[in-house]
Amino acid sequence: xxxxxxxxKDGEYTAEDITVLKGLEAVRRRPAMYIGDxxxxxxxxxxxxxxxxxxxxxxAGFCKNIEVKINKDGSISVIDDGRGIPTDMHKEEKRSALExxxxxxxxxxxxxxxxxxxxxxxxxxxxxxxNALSETLEVTVKTAGKVWYQxxxxxxxxxxxxxxxxxxxxxxxxxxVTFMPDGTIFKNRVYKFDTLAERLRELxxxxxxxxxxxxxxxxxxEQTEKFHFKGGLMEFVKYTDSTRPSIMRKVFYxxxxxxxxxxxxxxxxxxxxxxxxYSENVxxxxxxxxxxxxxxxxxxxxxxxxxxLNTFASKNNLVKDDKIQLTGEDFKEGLxxxxxxxxxxxxxxxxxxxxxxxxxxxxxxxxxxxxxxADWLENNSPDAKRIIEKSLxxxxxxxxxxxxxxxxxxxxxxxxxxxxxxxxxxxxxxxxHCEMYLVEGDSAGGSAKQGRDRRFQAIxxxxxxxLNVEKARLHKMLENExxxxxxxxxxxGVGEDFNQEKLRYNKIIIMCDADVDGSHIRTLLLTLFxxxxxxxxELGHVYIAQPPLYKLKKxxxxxxxxxxxxxxxxxxxxxxxxxxxxxxxxxxxVPEEGAQMKGGIVISRFKGLGEMNPEQLWATTMNPExxxxxxxxxxxxxxxxxxxxxxxxxxVEPRRQFIEKNAKYVRNLDV
Length: 671
Prior knowledge:
The protein is of the alpha+beta class. Helix content is 34%, strand content 21%. The protein contains 20 helices and 27 strands.
């Protein structure tokens, strides 16, 4: 007999409204929850998850070689010589453990601390997430004398795990995973060789016992890079600082162990040197995860560094002026350091979940670094004295900077008091809904002010190029009026004084011309933010506007193209459209100066933002409904630091090599 259910009332919330997503369906429905996003960053993150599994095998002492291949069809293969994912029957699941690992979230050896004492990755969801977001995935495992194989489509097994052969006498155990990202999830499935290579290089520095290799098979001429650094963190520091002259003859390095509150071993490793520049470059890692926000391990390192250097300075009477008191801030100038810890059960906190919270780690790091650094300073006194001399100069500059910082601090910024006169502020007071455009030139600034939505869009025009902060101390930098205006308008403070809660705009959008000068100004601004307001970048508040390069007109119809490829596509589309008779007659008139005619289409290239009227600027670059803006992030802080040093530092040769290597990515600007 059928059950008579009462009719559901409008707005009623019942059990029928509860949807249960089975298997990996949740991952496919909400991929950003598991890999951050489905843009280029998320695409590359799939590779990192598989590689992290192999690195975990290396941390356990069972893997020496990891190879990444970008195959001809654009798929990815990750090969390692670890123990191989287990293939025997799982007692609870009643199927191969290999299939369990690939299809069940939170299934893996990372939860058994006898299998992996420390691990990175996504807490046991990595490879199953990659499987769920792949069009196809194939896995081959060599273990127990046999070769096992299974294929999946969108996370579901095509057939059970099967044996496809036996291991040869010289065969090594290991796992090979080949996957093709799902095109219905990732609009762009093109992997960047350099992006993957940067992450593998970083892992090779952090794990000197492992050799990592990447090969690109998409072109006729294969591209291959192999990374193996016996010197580990010492080589990492030298590589990061390769574009900055060091004031030390020898890199400091220390390694040791301690016990956490559960009597488990915590490994500590650190290396540093000082250069002749003014910015600090410290990179911290927990189980190979880059902790952008630092944490207790970084606090322990800084405490040990400050205490040891102050003790050495006092012991050797190196501070002659009684009025000068060296602080931790003085020891940051010119410091390049890498701190890496291996923690059995890391607890992360912070907005981006990249800040170590385990309280006991601070003392463990101090106990390893402190004594080692004290001995090193005694045995390398010339280097130690140069560090103290540099820190004393930094202390003198700090006092000069103190007054300059006050100018950049937010003073009643929400009601407009103390804001730059050239800033056209927005009327809304809620920073979450506000954005500020940094616009190159007064002409473009005028158009932007007229074309903007005054409710939530602020405009700050910039005159010329700001100071290159890579080569200046803070107090000199803040003598630059344009820089003061930028910091005052943003309102969140500078350097150590940065306070996200005082941020006046959720989006800071850099809008420059699409030419060489515009690129230079954009790089100067990004250097400023990276060096003195890094959280602004790390938390995703910085964007780059994408103004169109071309205007195409056929009759009365006008369209815009943002690059050469889109321009060519627009030309084809417009050629296929018929203009009305009146429009055709109008088209016979001579095109505006600088424009070209192609098949009845007038093609104009914008030489600068100032050429656009307010309506055009709004429609193409400022309207949230139609614009394209690029969010600036830091996937790899160490490589970002090195790139800024190459582009904006004093060394010419590294910059020339960088330009030659990346010239292929420059857009063709000819019509």
